[in-house]
Amino acid sequence: MKFAYSSMKAKAGNKHAIAASLKSAYSSMKAKARNKHAITASFFFNARGDGLEKSISGMYRSLLLQLLEGYPDLQAVLDDFDLGPPQKDGCPPLNVLKDLFANAVCTIGQRSFTCFVDALDECDEQQVVEMVQYFEELAERSTAKGVQFRTCFSSRHYPYIVIHRGIQLTLEDQPGHAEDLATYVTSRLLIKEPRLVKELQPQLLGKAAGVFMWVVLVVDILNKEYRRGGMALRMRLAEIPSDLSDLFKDILGRDNENIEALLLSILWILYAKDPLRPQEFYHALWSGLSLKDLVNSQIPDVTVLGTGESDDTVSRYVISSSKGLAEITKSSQPRVQFIHESVQDFLIKDIGLSKLWPELAFDCESLGHERLKQCCSLYTNHPLIRTYVDRLLSEPDSNDRKEISNDYPFLEYASENILYHANAAAKAVPQEAFLTSFPVSNWIKTNNLFEKFNYRKYTMNASLFYILADKGCPELIRARLKEDSQIHVFGERHNYPFFAALANGHKDAVAALLNSSNGVDITEGLNHWKDLKEYGNRTPLSWAAQSGRAPIVQLLMQSRPSVGEMDRRERTPLLRASVHGHEAVVRLLIENGANVNASNKVERTPLSQASSKGHEAVVRLLIENGANVNVGNKHGWIPLKWAAFNGHEAVVRLLIENGANVNVSDKGRGTPLEWASLEGHEAVMRLFIEKGANVNVVDKFGRTPLLRASLKGHEAAVKLLIENGADVNLSDKDRRTPLEWASLKGHEAVVRLLMENGAQAERQTSKQTQTSIFTPSSLS
Question: Record's superkingdom (predicted)?
């Protein structure tokens, strides 16, 4: 059995070459597959991209989408599949994606599907091993079903991938690769003397060991030496290290010229939240160099950017500051990046950054972010920029984001990400002083200038805690808590910092606000917006209590909010937990001093609410902790009456056992038995009667329990009341009897039952006669 399965490998410096080879193969295959019976899909892992661009889940989602779009009939696999609960990003779990993809592939039939996946080395090694095994098994399954399923992977040599079935190609071993390198050297090397070229080229290619990037860098080094006169060409080639990582170290550490600009350029490319535009990069480096008085104090004028001269200035600076290891991408939206992924590998994986700058060795990433934070801080707080921002705010018509970006291209990034860099730096560099002096109002002004949507803008009263929670800065929240504990300040779009963090999915920020350990997911199971749909009228504590999230309640209690606080609906956390039956939360709140008899604006107590909903365990807990079973609301409804009305027999029994009065009447003189009769709760009625309830009690409208049951047509309830001595002929204030009400409402069985038990068929009422469905006399 044959499997259409292949893998391509190459050394680190040949990654561009293998990517080009894969792209060529993909384009060729796609061109051949231009019919309705063949689809070619691709996915390229991008270490600099967002989560989906560099994750295994992102790959499966992308390939599945391309397959379902190409063969729409396969979308039926989604109809017969349990997708399970989504993850925090709204995506199905990885195992569900894998099953969906396999089912779709195996349903292709006589059509074909080809996948190209590049840069496996950007993933975790164990994930790569599992993915390759998955694709091998899928290839086996699809082949057994006659499906034409082909897969081609590409990767550097590490991580090592074992292919059990299929073809494995190594770029350096392929015919023509050496010739391609020789052709490149011949075309790019500037040396004019044929004999010298003939002498140096074999040495150069021999040391390259097939690594294309090494050849590119060394040809450039030799060309520079040649332009200087070429007297040391042989010596320079001999001393150049053959290892690519060592070559990078040699290039970066060969001299100390502009060493600060070199470090800043590396840090910005490595640790910027998003790759910088050339103009942003230019101003970002000016800001960092200005901190050390290494450049002119004036902010560079880039108002003429877009002209050939200014663009050339920025381009030359990108190259010179990085010693040739950075470039500007040739795209519609140019960005500054390393010339090759292997540069980043040298700096991070081979700890080149620590070797070249030992002062960063303690924690390169945190210390790097600290430098970038300082660049952002100097830029955003520069007097000229502050004056500029204030002028724009005073002239509403001049608030043009494009104009601002042209004048001060680094301002938007610096304002948006100063807190991001400070948060990343906080893991190793204390940020308390930075936060204490952070100009919140100035930051809000600048941030609002660039915010497209008004509802996302902050008011000038926004607290620092709210901003940190909204932006997802857990380390800064923890640092600020050392100086300020006021995390429950009301205001802004999400009302409280806690809700801002939850709504944006910042789980670590939630944990920080609650002073919980990082990595402990106390929000597990939350679907963010869906589960926050009613948070607007809640405090964090009352929301957590209502949602039954005991761990969050416990942590919130440690931040010392008032356990009896009223939310905007004038409900306490205990009342909200009680009405929803969250026993563990109720216990927590009581242990922390919650008043079990506190009522809301309509005088409903926690016991009243729990009784109404039938939460027996909560009712018991409240009673054990002193809840008054006979306290009523302004209408006189006590917990027993709420439980009776809703038919909760166990709760009714529990309340009676703890002293509830079965004959108590409300302001309408209605008793619990009357309300149980109205709803036909026979078991509850029987319990009341056993406990001595008066079956002939009359409310202020003259209505008895029997009349209420008859009016609603509850035959079993009527029978029970008659059996226990209810007077069938007692009339209400309108002189209507149970029989007349049952007749009027058309309850034939009840009418018959009442008449069988002595109800008088003909009586005169004080109101105008109403037409009934049938008359008692007709039944008799």
Answer: Eukaryota
pLDDT in tens, 153-182: 877 655 566 666 667 776 656 677 788 888
The one-letter code for the residue type at 283 is: H
If you count them, how many residues does the chain have? 780
Could you tell me the CA-to-CA distances from 761 to 225, 748, 752, 779 in Å, in that order?
122, 13, 10, 9
What stretches of 80-147 adopt beta strand conformation (E)? 112-118
pLDDT digits (tens, 9 = 90+) for 41-98: 888 877 666 667 778 888 899 999 988 988 988 888 777 655 554 454 556 788 888 9
Cβ-contact 722, 728 below 8 angstroms: yes
* pLDDT given at position 635: 79
Q: Which of 576, 555, 552, 554 is nearest to 564 (CA)?
A: 576
Handedness of CA 673, 675, 677, 681 (dihedral sign): negative
Nearest to 7 by CA among 130, 146, 157, 124: 157
| 83/566: higher pLDDT | 566
Q: What is the pLDDT of residues 130-161, one digit of tens each?
A: 888 888 888 888 888 888 888 888 776 555 66
Residue 149 β-bridge partners: 113
Select from 692, 619, 628, 624 the least CA-distant residue to 659.
Answer: 628
Q: Give the DSSP letter of residue 38.
A: E
Strands 112-118 and 326-328, bridge-based pairing: unpaired
Start-to-end C-alpha separation, the chain: 89
CA atoms of 633 and 645, how far apart (whole Å): 15
Report how far residue 66's alpha carbon sits from residue 117's, in angstroms, rounded to the nearest whole number: 13
Query: What single-letter DSSP state applies at residue 348?
Result: I
